[in-house]
Design brief:
- By secondary structure, the chain is α/β, with parallel strands linked by helices.
- The protein has two domains: 178 residues, P-loop containing nucleotide triphosphate hydrolases (Rossmann fold, 3-Layer(aba) Sandwich), CATH 3.40.50; 131 residues, Heat Shock Protein 90 (2-Layer Sandwich), CATH 3.30.565.
- The strands form two sheets. A seven-stranded mixed beta sheet has the order 3-2-4-5-1-6-7, sandwiched between helices. A five-stranded antiparallel beta sheet has the order 8-9-10-12-11, covered by helices on one side.
- A hairpin with a 2-residue loop joins strand 11 and strand 12.
- Helix 2 crosses helix 3, helix 6 packs parallel to helix 7 and helix 9 packs antiparallel against helix 10.
- It is elongated.
- It starts with a helix and ends with a strand.
Length: 313
C-alpha cells in the first residue's frame, strides 16, 4: 500500500500547486465534485476572488458547497485550525465526512503572515492526525507566490502535487514544527517603548498600551482591542510565566506592534487555536487574543515565551 493510499484512512493534508485560473479550476473542480458525489460535506475557504471563480465554474453544484472567505476567517492564521476543528466536530457528530479546501498562503500576504501560514500548515498535522478521516487540499499559486513560500509547502504537507499528479512529498518535515515554534522572532528596531509588569501592574499595563495606541493614531476600536489583549497577556505572564514579564511597543511603516515576553514555556504549540471547552484549564487568553488581533505570533522555548501582536495600518 502506498503512502497516498494509507493517508485515505485518516487525515489527508495535501498541497496543490497551480499556475493561473484554468489550472486552479482543473485541480479544484474534480476534488470538490468528487466530495459531493460521495455525499461528503464540502467546505471551501479561499480569498474572495477565488471563491467567485470557483462558484461560477461549479454552476448548480455551488449550492451544495459552503464557501468561506479566507481573508476573513484566516486574516490571523492562528484562527484557521479552530474553524476546521469546529466543522470536523459538527460533521463527525452528524455521521458525515468533511472535505475541505483552504488557501491560507494567498497572494498579497505580508512576510510575517506567510511565516505564520507555514506554522499553521505544520500544526494542522499535529491537530488532526489520529482523529476522524477527512481531506484538506491547500492550493498554492506557484506562479505568483514568493519561491520560499512554495518550497515551504513541500515541507509542511505530507502529500503534494499538481493537476497532473498526486504524490507523497519527499520533503515533508514534521520536525520543522519544533524549530519554528521555538525560534526567536525578528528583533524590533531601536525605537521601542519598553516596560515591566508584575502582579499589581495589569491595569497600568493595559492603560500604557492604550495610551501608546492612541498616540500613534490607531482608531479607538483598535485601541480597545489592544488594551484588552494586553490585559490578557500580562495576566498570562503572571500566572504562567513566573509572576512577572516585560512588554514592548513600536511602529513600522505599515504596522503597530505590541509584544509580551516572560520566562514561562508553552508546551503545546496548539495553545489558543482551538475553541476552549468549558472544562479546559488555560489557553483561553491566547484564544481570545487570536480572535481579536490582526496577527498573533506565539513562540516558546527554554528561553521563555513571546507573544507579538501586529496591527496593520
Amino acid at each position: 500500500m502506498t503512502a497516498v493510499e494509507q493517508a485515505r484512512n485518516g487525515f489527508e493534508h495535501e498541497a496543490l500547486f497551480y499556475r493561473g485560473e484554468d489550472d486552479f479550476l482543473a485541480g479544484l473542480l474534480p476534488f470538490v465534485r468528487e466530495g459531493l458525489d460521495r455525499d461528503e460535506v464540502v467546505v471551501v475557504a479561499e480569498p474572495r476572488a477565488r471563491l467567485e471563480l470557483l462558484r461560477d465554474a461549479l454552476g448548480d453544484d455551488a449550492a451544495a458547497v459552503e464557501f468561506l472567505d479566507m481573508s476573513d476567517i484566516g486574516q490571523n492564521p492562528a484562527r484557521i485550525i479552530g474553524v476546521w476543528d469546529r466543522l470536523l466536530q459538527q460533521q463527525t457528530a452528524a455521521g458525515r465526512r468533511l472535505r475541505g479546501v483552504g488557501e491560507p498562503a494567498f497572494v498579497g500576504r505580508r512576510e510575517a503572515e506567510f511565516t505564520e501560514c507555514r506554522l499553521h500548515e505544520l500544526l494542522l498535522n499535529t491537530a488532526f492526525d489520529g482523529g476522524p478521516s477527512w481531506r484538506l487540499l491547500c492550493p498554492y499559486d506557484e506562479a505568483h507566490l514568493p519561491p520560499s513560500v512554495v518550497r515551504a509547502a513541500l515541507h509542511t504537507h505530507p502529500l503534494a502535487g499538481t493537476t497532473a499528479e498526486r504524490r507523497t512529498s519527499p520533503r515533508y518535515s514534521p520536525g520543522d514544527l519544533d524549530e519554528l515554534f521555538g525560534a526567536e522572532l525578528p528583533r524590533p528596531p531601536d525605537a521601542v517603548v519598553r516596560g515591566i509588569h508584575g502582579p499589581a501592574d495589569v491595569p497600568a499595563t493595559r492603560r500604557t498600551v492604550a495610551e501608546y495606541a492612541r498616540a500613534v493614531e490607531l482608531p479607538e476600536e483598535t485601541v480597545e482591542v489592544l488594551a484588552l489583549a494586553a490585559s490578557e497577556l500580562a495576566t498570562n505572564s503572571i500566572r504562567h510565566g513566573g509572576g512577572t514579564g516585560t512588554f514592548a511597543m513600536w511602529t513600522t511603516g505599515s504596522a503597530v506592534l505590541v509584544e509580551f515576553s516572560d520566562a514561562g514555556r508553552v508546551e503545546d504549540p496548539l495553545t489558543g487555536r482551538r475553541t476552549p471547552s468549558l472544562e479546559q484549564e488555560g489557553g483561553r487568553g491566547i484564544y481570545l487574543v487570536n480572535q481579536l488581533c490582526d496577527l498573533v505570533q506565539l513562540r516558546s522555548s527554554d528561553r521563555g515565551t513571546t507573544v507579538r501582536l501586529t496591527t496593520w495600518r
